[in-house]
Design a protein that fits this description.
This protein is of the alpha/beta class and about 130 residues long. Helices cover about 35% and strands about 10% of the residues. It has a domain of about 70 residues. The structure holds fe (ii) ion.
Length: about 130
């Protein structure tokens, strides 16, 4: 049986409005998979929350900003966990599992990655070649 889910927008608005009666500092953890949804929650709460910080993907984004209404935003804060890992898990079992899954798949050709300048500097700082 699927749970009945509530629309998060009016739910978070009600929660923030209630919290505003008790504090002027409101930090919202926007836990979700899609950046667009987290950005939408951030924009929706602009001027209502102090900060909206996304979580879940385990990889920190570099899109920190202050929205026009004064709300601080970051799409994903990344993770706390072992650096020598895959999202906190031991490397070898995850690589082996992914390898087995990928052998069953076919897909496009070529490869590519976008590394923003800021990310490149961070990687250099970590000792990447
Ligand atoms: Fe999660």
């Amino acid at each position: 049986m699927q749970p009945i889910l509530e629309n998060p927008f009016p739910a978070v608005e009600a929660a923030v409005t209630a919290m505003r009666q008790e504090t002027s500092v409101i930090f919202v953890d926007a836990h979700g998979e899609t950046p667009a949804r987290k950005i939408a929650i951030g924009r929706f709460l602009d001027g209502k929350a102090s900060a909206v910080i996304g979580t879940h993907t385990h990889v920190q984004t570099a899109d920190e900003q202050i929205f026009p209404g004064g709300t601080a935003f970051l799409c994903d804060a990344g993770m706390c966990g072992p650096a020598n890992s895959i999202l906190g898990r031991a490397v070898e079992p995850i690589v082996n599992r992914s390898f087995r899954i990928c052998r069953r798949c076919s897909g496009g050709e070529g490869s590519g990655a976008v590394v923003r300048r800021r990310g490149f500097r961070s990687m250099k700082r970590l000792g990447a070649p």
